[in-house]
# Entry
Amino acid sequence: MKFELQYNDSQSNARAGLITTDHGQIETPIFMPVGTQGAVKAVHMPELEKDIQAQIILGNTYHLYLRPGLDILRQAGGLHKFNSWNKPILTDSGGFQVFSLAHNRKLTEEGAIFRSHVDGSKHIFTPENVMDIERTIGADIMMAFDECTPGDAEYSYAKKSLDLTERWLDRCITRFNETECEYGYKQALFPIVQGCVYPDLRKRAAENIASKEAEGNAIGGLAVGEPTEKMYEMIEVVNEILPKDKPRYLMGVGTPANILEAIERGVDMFDCIMPTRNGRNGQLFTRRGILNMRNKKWANDFNPIDAEGTSFVDTLYSKAYLRHLFIVNEILALQIASIHNLAFYLWLVKEARKHIIAGDYSNWKRSIIDDVTRRL
Amino acid sequence: MKFELQYNDSQSNARAGLITTDHGQIETPIFMPVGTQGAVKAVHMPELEKDIQAQIILGNTYHLYLRPGLDILRQAGGLHKFNSWNKPILTDSGGFQVFSLAHNRKLTEEGAIFRSHVDGSKHIFTPENVMDIERTIGADIMMAFDECTPGDAEYSYAKKSLDLTERWLDRCITRFNETECEYGYKQALFPIVQGCVYPDLRKRAAENIASKEAEGNAIGGLAVGEPTEKMYEMIEVVNEILPKDKPRYLMGVGTPANILEAIERGVDMFDCIMPTRNGRNGQLFTRRGILNMRNKKWANDFNPIDAEGTSFVDTLYSKAYLRHLFIVNEILALQIASIHNLAFYLWLVKEARKHIIAGDYSNWKRSIIDDVTRRL
# Structure
């Protein structure tokens, strides 16, 4: 993996760059649609590539490890071959899901023991076997195995948790360096900065990670219950320290406004289930604000879903039609909302990149941020 | 509406024709995907037009009358404008749904009184108001309001039911002739032959309907529980009598084999929920047989879903991937299976048309019918 830092905003820490992987290039800042189980929910691969213009998608290690399982993924020749997405893929490390989805979970020095939420079967994730699993899935970017500390954790817990995450990181790096991709292309490993909302822990974590000289670095454990201002503060603390010549990935974030603020603070990569999950619940993000498509007010609004939108759904279908589809529980409603929201998120980061390059990022952000946050 | 009978098979009653409506032409024999609530489930309009190559779709009067309701449809300028499907649309008359979905239904000479399955509200469908409703929906082809007699009805019930359907037909025709399309294009009205499995009733019904000189005629009340051989026998009885120079529509049928047999017996138009509903349940129809995608045997079959299929999904995704999507309940599974099955049904009738024109329909049917019926 290669990262070229192409532009630095003179007014802020915003940056534009280019990541090159064996499955193609990624222009940053970028948003990565979440394909938890090997599919972005309700979206066909050609729609993802051509209409939404996604450049990289996520897969979730926890889910893919359970189903279809490593045997199938290995026989397929990795996730790209399995799901027909031939551009870059990033996998998380499963740690977050073990703590949010799995049953009977128990943390030890060795790793995390848990029972599958699918069939109750018992499993263990360790730094070593998670590296092996991500090798088998075959993502272009692999994430280190960590404990995602809750946003409201006490200092003493957050510190103990960070200690463990740091020991696990060393084990991840060792195993990663001892192994190779099973399918002949290159994979990169990103460590994850934890430390909850405590500046000194975040600082220490960022310094430790900076010393590892990884190909890219991630900020985890944010947008997990802490106040938004705390999140922005932690991003600032961390990005002071993380190497400027490596991409920075803010995990699991967030609203359009969160993304614009984080870009201004030097973040390059994002993922979030919000555009797809909220879309399936009828919430549409647009340049002019947020629409609840179940609202009666759209019942006879025959204007396009989003006259300024970039997706084919935006001008093909009307608000009244989409509202009807939601009210009568048609699957097509979920498809339309998911495509629209993802296309909007990809438009947003592309536009951000344009303005970073044009040198007016902060002005543009100020001009748009109230609009994208407004409830319509 | 215009119907041009283009080819008659010399070996059988199979025919190829061309229907012309104000929303475009339809080559027969044709299969019409079902868009119950104004959307074909899990399928985008451009997929329906370009990938599946549907030439006409159905809307269900009962559902559309309840939601979005006539006010919205009228304000939209009819169903075509509302759902962005600009090719021909056919609407059923709601009779079948009143008897299969609605609550507290009661049949009188006047019409059918029922309570909505959505909110329990009370409604009446009469021959007159159903004509008005179909005018407001704005389908190119409207169906007469009838009672769909159950497949296992006693003779005396079937006869009484047919008497009512015939009186209702006259009221439908009167109302239809007194009214006009609200949107400026032409609409046609198709009467429906009932009579259960009783040849004399079917004959009488067909003769009565033939005398009405409608622009097309339908055969209803089949594939509703009677033996398949009875269905074929009824089609033969009816098609002896129905005018040859008008399209014949067999309502709600059926399996690929049913369609091939009915084409051989002179049917031109079909609709059925089978490709979409069975698809959503994991059943795929192909040229080589029927696949249950949930079956373990596909778990590591990395071959295309259908190497001979005409849809983009057929060669883009593998059987193993589609099986995985079904097992983990991904919406994309429903999308893929629905598109595949509809594309297969449209391929089947297009291929049938080709062979009618080539003069070898019956031979071709014999060569394919065991294959399409086989469980793989």
In short: Chain A has a mean pLDDT of 97. Chain A has one domain: 2-271.
